[in-house]
Amino acid sequence: MRLDRMLSNAHAGTRTQVKKLVKDGRVCVNGERAPHSSLQIDENNDTVTIDGNPIVYEKYVYFMLYKPAGYISATESSHEPTVMDLMPQDIRGLFPCGRLDRDTEGLLLMTNDGPLAHKLLSPKYRTEKEYYIEHALPLSAEDVQRIEKGVVYEGVQYRPAKYKRISDTACTLTVCEGKYHEIKLIFSSLNNHVDYLKRIRMKNLKLDESIKKGSYRTLTESELDDLKEENS
Length: 232
What we know:
With 232 residues, this protein is an alpha+beta fold. It contains six helices and 15 strands.
């Protein structure tokens, strides 16, 4: 791997910034000053430092993004802002793991780890996703029973969801499918309407409410271990 790419992937700066670091003689590889930024290195075995401080290369990165409304969960769009606009621009292969609707807020895992994303999103693994919901009308006991047994709407079957009441017009639902507009369509099947929707959990990963909307942080080791843990 080229030295400048390794440094930018390790968040040492943009390609332009790390090239300047090398040019200024601040980057060393195995104790020797790097001659140029295009130097080929072994990112797993060579020791790279900036001003004497070691740089750790990670093949995969994992971020918790607090997605605000108004952004689409895509890597690119010609006419709408995407969640990629909120993330570092120097990480190769970064993408949203799953999707949230444009007007939906909350937890979105951003990574470049394709194998993990596949496990989390595959229907085979039935990864739980929990949402906080504010809805237009109170739910009857019959409504709740239908949600917990699974509903059919416009010819589509939706698996049973776990319901937790918060108030007459607020609740959480936990689903394990992730079908298109699933929560909104479940409520439509009840002749109800979702006024506000926020994802608060994906598997064991809970939204960190201390993060401001539109901001992100790196996952902790324990959070990542929980995500990678096989479903029981």
